[in-house]
Amino acid sequence: MALQDICNFQSVFEDSLTTEYPAVPHGKKIASNYVSGLPFSNNKSLFHFYIPVAEYLDESPIQFGQISTVQNCSADSSEDPFLTSSTLPTCLPFASSQSVPLPFPMAHGTTTLAFMFQGGVLAAADTRSSCSGLVACPASQKILPIHSHLVGLTSGTSADCALWKRILARELRLYQLRHGRRLSTSGAAKLLSHMLHPFKGTELCVAATLCGWDGGEVDDGCDYHGGTETGPGSHGETTKNQMTEQKNFVDSTNAKVSLAKDERFSFSEQCFIRKKMNLSGPSLFYVCSDGTRLRGMLFSVGSGSPYAYSILDQGVHWGLTVDEAKSIAREAVYRATYRDAYSGNCVDMYHITSKGWTRRNREDLKEEYYREKQRRKHEKTERRDVTFSD
Amino acid sequence: MEYLIGIQGQDFVLVAADNVAASSIIQMKHDYDKMFKLSEKILLLCVGEAGDTVQFAEYIQKNVQLYKMRNGYELSPAAAANFTRKNLADYLRSRTPYHVNLLLAGYDDTDGPGLYYMDHLSSLAKAPFAAHGYGKRFILNLPSFTVRLIDKEGIHDLEKLTLGAK
């Protein structure tokens, strides 16, 4: 990954192990079967835990038991002064060691993006895992399903992301068993954020975007304010987050809870007065190992994100159809892979609706690249013909 | 860079914060709220290091609410400010100090409005006006403010804010 370039990883071999995306716990097959086998008849909105199987893993010689040792190695061997953060207070907006100045901090070598629209949540990512300037794996999986209605995009160190996704999946499952209902995306993001907090200042690097659909659970006064039921109006409201809206604290009972109002307010309101809130709908959160946790309508993470943002900022709005949304997401990833060296190969796309997530077949972007090259050549010859004919 | 500003008047405190949540060069959110409601009449504004802000502010927020639940009445703004400062100071010389800059604004029924300035080195000062961020350098050395309000009825003079006021 781009990050590791600065880190000057000593052992490239170990890194190529970590950067493989081990999406399935081969070694833990027993546990996974156990999870999927149990019936839960009392919970109507039960989701099924997805056990992802990556096709290429059948040929891969990597055994799963190595994950923990490899992770420890990567934590030890990486010389990463740039990630060590705030043990000494600095005035910089982002914490970086004082020893070597960076022009700007290198982002994680990937392009992932996700946005909400009327048809649910769409998540897309490239499939290149890079390490020390070479492509470690051209077919990695950066979108990891966590359960049937929650999908996580990963960016950062591959091993860290895969591990923490699994830990999150386990904790969500335990929550569901203990409380009889599914934890909302907001709660899952909070849980992940709190689990990552003790590792702040270490080289752990996880930047995850959680995309989910919260079910129609009702009446939890002190529950985390999960997905919202706002429609297109929410976009306009987000710009008007003024002091005057504080008066609305008392009125936060009204069904229309705008996205602009941070969930903290409604949470504290609920602690004082129990309210029946309707938590349902799409939900999108960005969680980072430095402690950031943001709810939003559109996120893109990674070294290719500036390029992706330029496509998304102009094209994404609430009223997109599913096909339009898919083509915009694909275009954004394609443009990012076009320019960014650390993103490339194929594009994965997941669409989350009230019925769960659906996965589009992985598409190789080099076809698109060659199609475009043909088009350009064609245009150039056309233009030349036109000028000659004058 | 993140920016907070607070101005205390005769019977009000006015606070404002920017709405950007940035991650290095990318603005991740344009509508991010940096104010945390501690109680009915106390607001905490918090900027600084990415995760520390929310963690610390929510910790203070929950503890203030817990106090109300246990004792039946709310903490005063002065008490809340001192509690916050104490927590900052306790963590300052630990392995994990919180790098956050805060403004606490509140209205006490007996003492009136109050604005408290706290920074990451756990200093605490009650001030008539305060700011954090690049803008701080422009506001903090001003001895006084002239404040006028313009609304549909015209221009109104408000109380002049000076350093010696409260």
TrEMBL record, chain A:
The keyword Cytoplasm applies. PANTHER family: METALLOPROTEASE TLDD, PROTEASOME SUBUNIT BETA. The keyword Nucleus does not apply. Its main location: nucleus. This is Proteasome 20S subunit beta 11b. It comes from the Eukaryota. GO terms for cellular component: cytoplasm; nucleus; proteasome core complex. CDD domains: proteasome_beta_type_5. Residues 379-390 have a biased composition (Basic and acidic residues). It is found in: Nucleus. Keywords: Cytoplasm, Proteasome. Residues 371-390 are annotated as: Disordered. GO terms for biological process: proteolysis involved in protein catabolic process. InterPro entries: Ntn_hydrolases_N (IPR029055), Proteasome_bsu_CS (IPR016050), Proteasome_sua/b (IPR001353), Proteasome_suB-type (IPR023333).
TrEMBL record, chain B:
SUPFAM superfamilies: N-terminal nucleophile aminohydrolases (Ntn hydrolases). It comes from the Eukaryota. Keywords: Cytoplasm, Nucleus, Proteasome. The keyword Cytoplasm applies. Pfam families: Proteasome. PROSITE patterns: PROTEASOME_BETA_1, PROTEASOME_BETA_2. It is found in: Cytoplasm; Nucleus. GO terms for cellular component: cytoplasm; nucleus; proteasome core complex. Its main location: cytoplasm. Component of the proteasome, a multicatalytic proteinase complex which is characterized by its ability to cleave peptides with Arg, Phe, Tyr, Leu, and Glu adjacent to the leaving group at neutral or slightly basic pH. The proteasome has an ATP-dependent proteolytic activity. Component of the proteasome complex. This is Proteasome subunit beta. It comes from Oreochromis niloticus (Nile tilapia). The gene is PSMB2.
